[in-house]
Amino acid sequence: MQDRILYEYAVIRIFPKVEREEFINAGILIYSKPAKKLLVKTYFNRQKFDSYHSKLDPDEVELNLKSFELIAAGDPDGGPIAKMEIAERFRWMTAVRSSCIQTSRPHPGFSADLEKTIERLFEELVL
User: Fold this and answer.
1) Neighbour count for residue 68 (Cβ, 10 Å)
2) Of 2, 11, 70, 76, whose CB count within 10 A is highest?
């Protein structure tokens, strides 16, 4: 039996109209302290976003969504947050905020394979 790895995950959500509190699930964020990993997978469903008749610029929303991937990877293009330690990046990305892109509260779990887990959660909660 493989070792199970403790992880936390959050769902990345786009709020086309923040005041209405309606959202589109747009990604999954997984952090595991024991595995020293921070994984992100995003998907911008433009057709669904356009159905909300939002005043937000969809290209800007997509660019901001992609910043989650840059920050998680520690990419210099992710700005100063990407330079932080893995745990700090996860906490920054999951901090409560009232912007057009937010995350759910983190949820814990155990996994034998974090890459398979992010794919499963992505399929179940985003696609």
Assistant:
1) 23
2) 11
Q: Where are the beta strands (DSSP E) in the chain?
A: 5-17, 22-32, 37-42, 101-103, 107-111
How far is Cα 12 from Cα 70, in angstroms, rounded to an integer?
14
For position 10, what pLDDT does the model report?
Answer: 98
Distance of alpha carbon 69 from alpha carbon 75, whole angstroms:
9
DSSP letter at 57 equals -
Q: Which of 13, 31, 37 is nearest to 125 (CA)?
A: 13
Paired strand residues for 8: 31, 108
CA distances from 49 to 15, 58, 98, 101, 121 (A): 9, 8, 18, 12, 21
Place 116 in a pLDDT band, splitting at 50, 70 and 90.
very high
